[in-house]
Design a protein that fits this description.
Blueprint lengths: L7 E6 L3 H12 L4 E4 L8 H4 L3 E2 L9 H12 L2 H4 L6 E9 L3 H17 L5 E3 L1 H7 L10 E10 L1 H14 L3 E3 L4 E7 L2 E6 L2 E10 L5 H7 L8 E12 L7 E4 L5 E4 L4 E5 L3 E5 L4 E2 L3 H14 L8 E6 L2 E3 L6 E4 L5 E5 L9 H12 L17
Parallel strand pairs: 1-2, 1-10, 2-7, 4-12, 10-20
Antiparallel strand pairs: 3-6, 4-6, 5-6, 8-9, 9-10, 11-14, 11-15, 11-17, 11-18, 12-13, 13-14, 15-16, 19-20
Amino acid sequence: MMIPSNRNKVIVIGGGIHGCATAYFLAKRGQTVTVVEKDHIARHASGVNAGGVRTLGRDLAEIPLSLASMDLWKKLHSEIGVYAQAFHPSFYLKVAIDEEGYALGSARAEALKHAGYNHEFWLDASDVQDRLPKLTTPTYGGFLVEGDGWARPWLIVRGFAQGARQYGAEIIEKCNVFGLELRQNCWYLKTDKGVFEADYVVNCAGAWAADLAFQSGEPKAPLSAYAPMLAVTESKPPILPAVIGVLGHTLSLKQLDTGQFVIGGGVRASANLSENSGEVVLPELRESMQLAARLFSDISNAQIIRCWSGIEGYMPDNLPIIGHGKQPGLIHGFGFSAHGFQLGPAVGEVLADLVMGQQPRVPLDAFRPDRF
């Protein structure tokens, strides 16, 4: 592939959902944009996550961004065409199976009411059972959001990448950035495919983003890398029409259209950034599997056919970094702490706004890069 010698208007570092969505919205608005990805599009967190598309259970500071993103998910076909078929809206339930969970639900309900949000509805135990007739564990009720669902993440990312290309963006894979420097209002990116120049750099490098920013002279962000683990079962008859979680417990459970159950929810293992690898620690993942089987006894005899992990960057407050860096022309979007997939479309739109000097439609104060 020929590397363009001309100066780029914008270079996006990272080919996950946030980077590809940013490139898509920039290119759609007529901007010259190049994405550089050190491996392959959707290789890391954006391609190997559980694919949950949820507004439910968000940190209060994250709700406006999540709701704005859901607006984009609902009209995704008009943005990325047939790739949008990888999104399966249904509903999301987060149930309480013990008194601790019920107390958490009560506190959540009060906080939502105080903040003026009404997208989450509390169902009593009988309504939960009506919604999930195959549920084999009594509940104290649970939160419901209609229209949340799941997607095949790698297809959604490819959709944004393809859409960006159709609007003129270039995407260069196997292109590792190992140097980032600002000289005379021009950014120079040293890569193993040559030196790139750009007016703006958007840092969507995931778990590698803090080190990259630090190389450029930015303050060191307290980003930690872990490997969220997941498991998938053999195909079984359909019993679960929704995505389900449990208040006070680490679980995300869904049944795909293939009949397979995906079991995850953020149980972490160690990640090695230099080797692009994440561990799978079965004893810790087993707790999620056992909880899934407790909720639905039909899962107890479903054979696990694969376990895996990705690499994700976590911030101490579990909120992402989104905003301008301390140096002109550098914009950050990273640290999504294993719950950034659903946010991807809106984050791409927001980062495109920041590049172009436009006012984003959602507040970003909670995500300021300098908050640490």
